[in-house]
């Protein structure tokens, strides 16, 4: 009974404080626990399924996709050599320290022709999914070293490389 009376008193007190308006203590607006951005988990899923690690994470294929997430997207020094020259999958962890989310969105909608990067496939994603990929990779933080610079077709690479020339079998 006395507990009921105490709680009624508290309710009445709160009502009075509410009516008084300005005398009501300010309630902090910030949440007690900052919630993780749900797009980060979505981005991890898209990067894993999107084949990004196949090129940008050394040892991905050889490990049957078991490279720990802390080593994802650090770029590769194994080149892709074809009619365009030799390109290296860049270290996106370092790249995203320099590139903003808006610049990434612009890159996805405008870049192309840089073999064998899958810019054309990324354009099938919604803007939210494009953002999710950015936020996940950015959340991993900078790590590793930059990949080698691309080479023109006339230059023989000094690193290992995959041959991506189209070969036509003789008739
Ligand atoms: C078949 C190999 C391959 C796959 C798969 C691939 N990439 Fe790439 N990526 C490259 C290469 C090579 C480059 C360098 C050529 C270029 O800049 O377009 C590149 C470039 C990039 C760049 C630009 C970096 C810079 O320095 O300008 C980003 C960002 C990137 N890739 C992210 C991704 C993401 C995210 C995925 C998964 C959806 C992905 N890549 C899948 C090979 C690949």
Description:
- This protein is mainly alpha-helical.
- The chain has one domain.
- It is 42% helix and 6% strand.
- It is built from 7 helices and 3 strands, in the order H-H-H-E-E-H-H-H-H-E.
- A 3-stranded mixed β-sheet has the order 2-1-3, with no helix packed on it.
- Helix 2 (38-49) packs across helix 7 (127-140), helix 4 packs across helix 7 and helix 5 crosses helix 7 (127-140).
- The protein is globular.
- The model is unreliable at 10-28 (pLDDT under 50).
- It binds heme C.
- Heme C binds next to helix 3 and helix 4.
What is the C-alpha radius of gyration, as a whole number of Å?
26 Å
Number of domains: 1
Number of distinct helices: 7
**How many strands, which pairing sense, and closed or not: the largest β-sheet?**
3 strands, mixed
Enumerate the distinct ligands: heme C
Name the features:
three-stranded mixed beta sheet, 3 strands, mainly alpha, 7 helices
Write the layout of secondary structure elements.
Layout: H1 2-20, H2 38-49, H3 52-56, E1 79-82, E2 85-87, H4 92-98, H5 101-110, H6 119-122, H7 127-140, E3 161-163
Parallel strand pairs: 1-3
Antiparallel strand pairs: 1-2
The structure holds heme C (HEC).
């Amino acid at each position: 009974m006395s507990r009921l009376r105490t709680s009624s008193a508290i309710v009445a007190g709160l009502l009075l404080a509410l009516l008084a308006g300005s005398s009501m203590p300010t309630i902090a607006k910030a949440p007690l626990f900052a919630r993780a951005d749900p797009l980060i988990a979505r981005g991890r899923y898209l990067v894993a399924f999107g084949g990004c690690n196949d090129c940008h994470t050394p040892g991905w294929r050889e490990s049957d996709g078991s490279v720990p997430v802390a080593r994802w997207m650090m770029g590769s020094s194994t080149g892709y050599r074809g009619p365009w020259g030799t390109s290296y999958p860049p270290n996106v962890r370092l790249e995203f320290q320099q590139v903003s989310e808006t610049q990434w969105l612009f890159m996805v909608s405008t870049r192309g022709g840089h073999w064998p990067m899958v810019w054309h496939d990324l354009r099938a994603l919604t803007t939210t999914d494009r953002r999710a990929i950015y936020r996940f990779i950015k959340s991993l933080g900078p790590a590793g070293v930059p990949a080698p610079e691309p080479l023109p077709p006339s230059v023989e690479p000094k690193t290992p490389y995959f041959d991506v020339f189209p070969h036509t079998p003789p008739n």
